[in-house]
Amino acid sequence: MAIGYACLTIGVPGTELSRCTLKNASEVRLRELIIHNLTALEAMIDYNIKNNLMFFRISSDIIPFGSHPVNQLAWWKDYEDILYSIGRKIRESQMRVSMHPGQYTVLNSFDENVIENAVKDLLYHDRLLDSLGMDSKSKLVLHIGGVYGDKKKAGKEFVNNFKKLPNSIKNRLILENDDKNYTTQEVLEIAEQTKSPVVFDNLHNTLNPSLKSLDEMEWMIECGKTWRTEDGKQKIHCSQQGKGATPGSHSNTIWMNPFLEFYANVPAEADIMLEVKDKNLSAVKCRNTACYNANGMELEKEWAKYKYYVLSRSAALYSEIRQLLKDKKSPLAKEFYEKVETAMILSEDKGAEVNAAEHVWGYISKDSSTAEKNRFQKLISGYKNGDNSIVPVKKHLLKCAAIRKIDYLIESYYFYL
Question: According to the model, what pLDDT value does residue 319 have?
Answer without folding.
Answer: 96
